[in-house]
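Researcher: I'm preparing a figure for a lab meeting and need a structural model of a single chain. I don't have an experimental structure, so a prediction will have to do for now. The sequence is pasted below. Please return the structure as tokens so I can convert it later.
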Amino acid sequence: MTSMEPTNTLGFGHFIAQSDVVGKTLLGILIVMSVVSWALIALKGFTALVRNRRSTAFLDFFWNARSLDAVQHEIATHGARDPFSHLTAHSMHAQAHHAKHGAARLAEAGSANDFITRTIKKVLDEETTRLESGLTTLATVGATAPFVGLFGTVWGVYHALVAIGMSGSGTLDKVAGPVGEALIMTGIGLAVAIPAVMAYNAFTRSNRVLTARLDAFAYELHSFLTLGEAPGAGAQQASSASVRPLKPAASAA
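Model: Understood. Here is the structure written out token by token.
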């Protein structure tokens, strides 16, 4: 019974108590990585949920609006709170601004079509940058956390073997405990990395889908602002009498 008492003292707490500054620093780094990654996961997950709901609501309103003037009034009333309304607001502002002031500056050079195209491209780049915010941190945590944990394990095993060598007792029961404790660091590193990698892949796919939808909507919006109707609107109107193409917004005087 007394021979089991040293074994009962082994565990994570014992490992931390026996660790030096390097081991405790590595553990602190892993804890910080875990907190940061989970905070990003929660924040981006909530943001994506709200963004998808607002985008769906705006697109439903947009495609059922009687004219772009109604869309402009809706955005002016409730604001641009999603990527689609943000793109629409800037594009319509570009159209009205160019119609009123023309190419007064170098940034406005070219026809109204060119100016609207550049505005749409700029907004798409801004939205892509916003969507990718935080993903670099998740990728970094997912890629480095296992190696930080592995380094902690190697460091712990090294000190455990040194202590065993100094004690002069190299039996299995004396080696297995300290080495097993050191392996905890590798497990912690994997526990930190796996959620970060899974979240990174999920957010990347979600952003890719949203970006594709936004690109398609930008093409339709550009056609509305420059041609007065979306591509294929005539065929859609012929096939369904209930579908009415949007009228272009009135040009600013």
